[in-house]
Write a structure and sequence with these properties.
21 helices, elongated, 25% strand, 25% helix, Phenylalanyl-tRNA Synthetase, Chain B, domain 3, Phenylalanyl-tRNA Synthetase, Chain B, domain 1, Phenylalanine--tRNA ligase beta subunit, 39 strands, ATP-binding, OB fold (Dihydrolipoamide Acetyltransferase, E2P), alpha+beta, metal-binding
Length: 872
């Protein structure tokens, strides 16, 4: 986010009278530059000019010598009387006693003094304190302590004002040093949208402030006398033999050489201060100058030690296996799409100097021994720089600007401006020979019907508003007659070179709306359509989430990205279709390059994270999408942007998309609630997971059938397969629930016997009847019967339940399994299933004969269907 110091902004545009950070931020917001933050003064409190009246050097036992000083800080701040136990020189004149360890000043010098109550950068508060046998009533300040960097005179220690060591700054004791040193400047931090990269410079923001207030704008480019005519500088060759879509990676490359400069010369204090206010750390004169010009004009620059460069400089794409150690001392393996700056200084005559538009290399960086400097200013393609910066995870101030578009007219101007500053503060001379290789691509004209502004925005803009808005942003506007096949005036608009985002008519309309004022656009609420508003799927998802929340679970959200080791952790078979994951070309994290194929793949890590942060149990759920790759068939064609894709191309793109569905997953483990005086709450178990599945189905109007199955990552003996009946009467598997496999529980550090649930929520919602029939309130009493059937171990309870319903017929109001028993009493390979059945008739109270007949039909139906025998 760019930071805009108001004093710097005021050099390029006239600010309103009395403008402060808040008013400037409000004006910038009116033209679409959102305020991010306001940063106040670096120093607050009584920071004043002082004159050293006298000083006494006092050696200490630790070998250090300190200065005990009497300092005149002005009548308002001097102390008339001092502690008589603290012998001091100069007691006859009101002053303050201050301890100082620096030795670059003497009696009579003007210095900067922070009195008690001053707050320095870093929230460092000054107070009187006892030290070295004296009471130090303030502090004599250095440039570093004030956030100004080292003394421009090259001396280590405090700032000396009286001898001209701060560019001739002077003052009298008691004068406000905050104003004198510019430490009271306010800074506005703004948020710049990707299409307005020109606002990553003081030049661009000043222009926008001028649009907002009408203040006079002076383009700093016009103050630079760029060289013309003479060429023949450092040879440069542009060899981009693999341009990306949109053009070559480098269209213009400028070099300018400064000879005989002193790289150790200090950065001027005003420049260090501005860099600090803008959020950058001062480093050295040459680096600081390139950064300053970049922040001011918007053109990134790079400086090479000329003695380390072996001409010619070549701009080309990387080759397989090439490496580069960048300025951050990281060795990087390069990609064939990376655009490089190289020279002929390698062992085999070819050496990589840097990643074009992103970061330079360590081999040719400027050091204190540098005497000759080559300044590079270039125009790089936005896509090339953006891809390289993301590929190497190397965002830089340069790449931020290049990937948003930089004015192609700036390179020579920026290089000349930087060269002049280096010579001004570091000495040397500018080589009259200049390299300016390549061409300047001018923006294309746009035919713009004036009526389009009203058609798109809905506001009746006048022709004068349209023309003036376009001219205000720097466009060249010419009359072009009437539009073909229509009426009204047509303009031919050529965008300015610094606005590469203006390419179609709608871009121009947006600028008109922005400059005339968004507040001029009326708010028109759309008419709400008839009906319930939400779709059936939306209502189902909300109902499902509400049902789980009411059951005590917490909804969470997890990123859909997974690593390749997840499939083995969850014990998927080699042929499991859930291994068919979509691989991302540019993942957010290298260790998570795949899209999840099951919701538990990302929900289980969330459970582990919560438990690792102090939770003793877990009960969470999520509703989210999963993706399954279509394999080799899932490669989408890339239609041309020149015209609308054909129906066949659109169909091919659609067919290549991964198969996606919305699923619901639950993970629960540990105690199901808080303990009390009655004891601990019961632990979540596999039966709870199945019950939650039934809750979800009931909330959307569906009914689940349950049968035992084996399915990773669940325990093989405690897994329920969940099915719904489709429109064709067939059962469709929609999910699984049960206890997690012990190995999975261990891998994710979950409580013992944790359980889980995963459902295809869209399928469950689709299985619900579209029309819900109202059930009349019964008027006759029910009859209750219990049945216990002995069946084979592999017979599912749902099959027995279905047989009971068929046997009893319309009299069966509800059937509920309440007990499962296995043991010696019923024989090996058998189990007993006990059901509670409610019978009710709509015609009257059931008689004993009707109930007995229903029992007989039930027993016979179970025997015929699954071979079940009524347990005695």
């Amino acid at each position: 986010m760019p930071r805009i110091p108001l004093t710097w902004l005021a050099e390029h545009v006239t600010l309103r009278d009395g403008a402060d950070a808040e008013s400037v931020a409000a004006d910038l917001v009116s033209v679409g530059l959102e305020e991010e933050a306001i940063h106040g003064a670096q120093v607050t409190g009584p920071l004043v000019v002082g004159r050293v009246l006298d000083l006494v050097k006092e050696p200490q036992k630790n070998g250090k010598t300190i200065n005990w000083c009497r300092v005149d800080v002005g009548p308002e701040h001097n102390v008339a009387a001092d502690d008589p136990k603290d012998p001091q020189p100069g007691q006859e004149q009101p002053s303050r006693g201050i301890i100082c360890g620096a030795h670059n000043f003497e009696a009579g010098d003007l210095v900067v003094v922070s009195l008690p109550g001053t707050v320095l950068p870093g929230d460092f508060a000054i107070a009187a304190r006892k030290t070295y046998g004296h009471t130090s009533d303030g502090m004599i300040c250095s440039g570093d302590e004030l956030g100004l960097g080292p003394d421009p005179a090259g001396e280590d220690g405090i700032i000396v004002l009286g001898r001209g060591h701060a560019e001739g700054l002077t003052g009298e004791p008691g004068d406000d040093a905050i104003a004198l040193l510019g430490l009271g400047d306010e800074t506005v931090e703004i948020n710049v949208t990707p299409d307005r990269g020109y606002c990553f410079s003081m030049r661009g923001v000043a222009r926008e402030y001028s649009h907002a207030t009408g203040g006079a704008f002076v383009d700093p480019v016009t103050t630079v006398d760029a060289p013309e005519g003479t060429r023949g500088g450092v040879p440069v060759q542009l060899r981009d033999d693999a341009p990306l879509r949109g053009g070559e990676g480098c269209t213009r490359f400028v070099t300018l050489e400064v000879r005989g400069t002193d790289a150790t010369a200090p950065t001027p204090r005003w420049m260090s201060r501005r860099l600090t206010q803008a959020g950058m750390r001062p480093i050295s004169l040459i680096v600081d100058v390139t950064n300053y010009v970049m922040l001011d004009l918007g053109q990134p620059l790079h400086a090479y030690d000329a003695e380390k460069v072996v001409a010619p400089i070549i701009v080309r794409r990387a080759r397989a296996g090439e490496k580069l150690t960048t300025l951050d001392d990281v060795e990087r393996t390069l990609d064939a799409e990376d655009l490089l700056i190289t020279d002929c200084g390698g062992p085999e005559g070819d050496r990589v100097l840097g990643l074009a538009g992103v970061m330079g290399g360590a081999e040719t960086e400027v050091t204190d021994a540098t005497r000759n400097v080559i300044l590079e200013a270039a125009t790089f393609q936005q896509i090339t720089v953006a891809r390289t910066a993301r590929r190497h995870r190397l965002p830089s101030e340069a790449s931020k600007r290049f990937e948003r578009g930089v004015d192609p007219h700036l390179p020579l101007v920026a290089a000349q401006r930087a060269a002049e500053l280096i010579v001004q503060y570091g000495g040397g001379e500018i080589d009259h020979r200049v390299t300016d290789e390549g061409t300047i691509t001018e923006p294309s004209a746009i035919d713009f019907p004036i009526a389009d502004a009203e058609r798109v925005v809905g506001v009746a803009y006048t022709p004068e508003q349209v023309r003036s808005s376009l001219e205000m942003i720097g466009c060249t506007v010419e009359e072009a007659g009437a539009p073909a096949g229509g009426s009204g005036d047509m303009l031919r608009v050529t965008p300015p070179s610094w606005r590469p985002d203006l390419v179609v008519r709608e871009d121009l309309v947006e600028e008109i709306a922005r400059l005339v004022g968004y507040d001029q656009i009326p708010s028109v609420l759309p008419t709400a359509p008839g009906g319930r508003g939400l779709t059936r799927s939306q209502r189902g998802r909300r109902n499902a989430g509400r049902a789980l929340a009411e059951a005590g679970l917490t909804e969470v959200a997890s990123y859909p990205f997974i690593g390749e080791g997840v499939f083995d952790q969850l014990r998927y078979d080699a042929e499991d279709e859930r291994r068919r994951a979509v691989r991302l070309l540019n993942p957010l994290a290298d260790d998570e390059p795949l899209m999840r194929t099951a919701l538990l793949q990302t929900l289980l890590p969330v459970a582990r994270r919560n438990l690792g942060r102090g939770e003793e149990n877990v009960a969470i759920f999520q509703v989210g999408s999963v993706s399954l790759s279509r394999g080799e068939a899932g490669v989408s064609p890339v239609p041309s942007a020149a015209q609308r894709p054909s129906n066949e191309e659109l169909a091919a793109v659609q067919d290549a998309l991964p198969a996606q569905t919305r699923r619901l997953a639950v993970v629960n483990g540990g105690a199901s609630g808080p303990g009390s005086w009655m004891g601990d709450a019961p632990a979540w178990g596999w039966a709870d997971a199945i019950d939650l599945a039934h809750r979800v189905a009931a909330s959307v109007g569906s009914h689940l059938e349950v049968r035992q199955a084996e399915h990773a990552p669940f325990h093989p003996g405690r897994t329920a397969e969940l099915t719904v009946q489709g429109a064709d009467g067939e059962q469709t598997v929609v999910g699984h629930a049960g206890e997690l496999h012990p190995a999975v529980i261990k891998a994710y550090s979950l409580p013992a016997r944790s359980s889980a649930l995963e459902l295809d929520l869209e399928a469950v919602i689709a299985a619900a009847p579209a029309v819900v029939e109202a059930v009349p309130v019964p008027t006759f009493p029910p009859a209750k019967e219990d049945f216990a059937f002995v069946v084979d171990q592999d017979v599912p309870a749902s099959a027995v339940e279905a047989a009971i319903v068929v046997g009893i017929g319309d009299l069966a109001e509800s059937v509920r399994l309440f007990d499962v028993y296995t043991g010696d009493q019923i024989g090996e390979g058998k189990k007993s299933l006990a059901f509670a059945v409610r019978l009710r008739s709509e015609d009257g109270t059931l008689t004993g004969e009707q109930i007995g007949a229903a029992r007989k039909r039930c027993i016979r139906a179970v025997e015929d269907a699954v071979g079940g025998v009524l347990r005695a």
